[in-house]
Amino acid sequence: MTHKHISFGELCKAFYHHNEQNNITSQFEDKNALVGVAVFKQESWPKATVQYSLESRSYRFTSDNKYFISGMGGNSIFASSLDKSDRGVRLDWYLGEWELDYCYIENE
């Protein structure tokens, strides 16, 4: 399945809009949350001795994380890699460190 590649800013805008339209005010309460994936460049790990697969560099998360809910007083994004080798990662901690390649929304 091919997904439309978007920037992280575009993904955030869609997630904020979804949450505002659906009056989402609490983390992980939206049963119809949008699902996004952030794909990071291999160059984010210059000292790695292996090439990471696309699935291991791709992290899935939902629109009902605090980062995307206005007024939450937090900015966490919990994500897991598509290959499930890295689970429950605080993705917001790495956004400035790892280099994003592109994002997409799975269920749009």
Characterization of this structure:
This protein is α+β, with helices and mostly antiparallel strands. 13% of the residues lie in helices and 21% in strands. The protein has one helix at 8-21, and strands at residues 35-40, 58-62, 78-81, 89-90, 100-105.
Features of the shown structure:
single chain, 108 residues, globular, alpha+beta, 5-stranded antiparallel β-sheet
Topology:
Layout (H helix, E strand, L loop, with lengths): L7 H14 L13 E6 L17 E5 L15 E4 L7 E2 L9 E6 L3
Antiparallel strand pairs: 1-2, 1-5, 2-3, 3-4
Kindly, what is the distance between the CA atoms of the first and last residues, rounded to a whole number of angstroms?
13 Å
Q: So what's the overall shape?
A: globular
DSSP strand (E) fraction? 15-25%
List unreliable stretches of 5+ residues: none
Major sheet attributes: 5 strands, antiparallel
* Total beta strand runs: 5
- Helix content percent band: 10-25%
Q: How many helices does DSSP assign? A: 1
Rounded average pLDDT: 94
